[in-house]
Write a structure and sequence with these properties.
The chain is of the alpha+beta class. It has helices at residues 32-41, 51-54, 88-91, 112-119, 125-131, 136-152, 192-207, 237-246, 267-270, 341-364, 369-383, and strands at 5-9, 16-22, 60-63, 65-66, 69-70, 75-80, 156-164, 167-168, 214-221, 251-256, 274-277, 281-284, 292-293, 296-297, 302-308, 319-321, 328-330. Helix content is 31%, strand content 20%.
Length: 388
């Protein structure tokens, strides 16, 4: 059972998206500009489609905040869908006079067909509207609240693109300052040469009517050791992070630290040796584990990568079956993106921030943010750990 709870609601082309975050302490100061900056960051990246020209996302607080500070109850946020004006008849919550045709062409790789089976629908739109990655705008809004909480504790959550298609970045950031300017890059890469190749790859594949996947990386700095637990599979921090990030649309794999490369390494090269110094206490010279051992944070930067498959809505649709006639047909074609890897990194920041914030809430409690800060400091003093 989490102490922080995130609920999202709303359809891709409906009136808007709702986010409710429950479990934040009272007195947490929020920054409207920082919250909306994250909303804008989710829309970044070369390869995005036409909808990004329509939507100018921002999050409006509708409950739980007074004069810029949380009050201790659930916080509700509203993200309007500007595109709803073009879909009002098709997506109106109430019956309309116009005849609205059903969609019968499920896309391979999407939730369409199985969602129809599961919920007994005859119209694919009843599935795709909720399964759409548009829902991630609501997650980023909620994640912004978690980031505000973490910033108060000296924790930063950052991301960059490691790979798009076969093109890989050589950048290995080790400090928060290394991420300066990442959002100014067309694909949110920290490697200028790789960035140019990634943009060109997207251009070539887009002309070939393809979508493109890749890998993003999230790094978290300033984490207190001991978040999570080794005593229960449900409380292992890496397990909870993997579930949260893998829940993002199109993510097919999550790795920590050196990830799958550790499978080929001998034990002497796979683990992070422990050292001690009077000035800085216990420390490691490597971080193969990505900041997590035994399901708990080690105090080293948390490193997480997510592998994103190419999105399933293609400008040249794949083969499918019309669920009404059961005859062969091309899958549904809708407005789509070519690559969403840069945006996926921002969404992953939100999900990682939420899980980390919940881990702090579970360990340190506190009804007011000052109680949380005091509890964290007391624990750090007890174990002799200093943020670095």
């Amino acid at each position: 059972m989490t102490l922080l709870r995130l609920i999202t609601a709303g359809e891709s082309h409906g009136p808007g998206l709702t986010t409710v975050v429950e479990g934040l302490p009272a007195g947490l100061e929020l920054d409207r500009d920082a919250l909306n900056a994250d909303m804008a960051r989710r829309q970044l990246g070369h390869g995005r489609g036409g909808r990004m020209k329509i939507e100018k996302d921002s999050a409006e607080v509708t409950a739980g905040v007074r004069h810029g500070r949380t009050m201790g109850g659930p916080v509700a946020l509203w993200v309007v869908n500007r595109d709803y004006q073009n879909w009002e008849e098709r997506m109106n919550p109430w019956p309309v006079e116009a005849e609205v045709g059903e969609v019968h062409l499920p896309r391979p790789g999407h939730a369409d067909l199985v969602g129809l089976w599961k919920f007994g629908h005859t119209d694919v739109r009843n599935v795709l509207e909720w399964a759409s990655a548009r829902e991630t705008a609501a997650r980023v809004a909620g994640g912004g609240l978690a980031k505000a909480f973490l910033r108060t504790l000296g924790v930063q959550v950052l991301s960059h693109v490691v790979q798009i298609g076969p093109i890989r970045s050589t950048a290995r950031p080790t400090r928060p300052e290394d991420f300066d300017g990442v959002d100014d890059d067309k694909v949110r890469s920290l490697d200028p040469e790789a960035s140019r190749a990634m943009v060109e790859h997207i251009n070539v594949q887009r002309k070939a009517n393809e979508s493109i996947g890749g890998i993003f990386e999230v790094r978290v700095f300033g984490l207190t050791p001991g978040l999570g637990s080794h005593v229960s599979w449900e409380e292992k921090l890496d397990g909870r992070l993997a579930q949260a990030v893998n829940s993002i649309q199109a993510v097919k794999g999550v790795a920590f630290g050196d990830g799958f490369d550790l499978a080929a390494a001998p034990g002497s090269q796979a683990h992070d040796e422990i050292f001690y110094d009077e000035a800085c206490g216990y420390y490691r010279e490597t971080n193969h584990a990505g900041g997590i051992e035994g399901g708990m944070s080690t105090g080293e930067p948390l490193i997480l990568q997510g592998a994103l498959k190419p999105i399933p809505t293609l400008t040249k649709p794949l083969r499918s079956v019309d669920i009404s006639s059961r005859e062969p047909a091309a899958a549904l074609r809708e407005r789509t993106d070519s690559s969403v890897v840069p945006a996926a990194g921002v969404v992953a920041e939100a999900m990682v921030a939420f899980v980390i914030a919940d881990a702090y809430r579970r360990k340190f409690g506190g009804d007011h943010i000052d109680d949380v800060v005091a509890a964290v400091r007391a624990y750090q003093e007890r174990i002799g750990w200093r943020p670095r």
